[in-house]
Task: structure prediction
Amino acid sequence: MSRDSVRIQLSQEGGLAAFPGLARPRSVELGELPAEQAEAIEQGLRDARFHELPSVVEGSGPRGADQRQYTLTVEEGARRHSVKLVEPVEDPHLRELLSLVRRATRRRGGHWN
Result:
């Protein structure tokens, strides 16, 4: 995976105090991140086997209208894979990946689409 060609987009829906205008997707280019942070995200993608995941990963907890959902999209050249994660995110690798990406888009300010 060439870091310079990897773009990650994260969007969030739902939750108790969801504001539609604040839920716009945020994205970050791995090549723009500090090396340590980019490496952690790359490792997180491998550990979660992200490109092998189905399009929706749901937790086994109770479903509700206020349930938060994240859509994580990874673009690498012409390759693109999106996964919707429905809370609770039970897989520890996916939880860690989501945390790393949220931190990266928050810290960098992300690019608004």
About this structure: DSSP finds two helices and six strands in the chain. Residues 42 and 52 are 15 Å apart (CA to CA). Residues 3-112 form one domain.
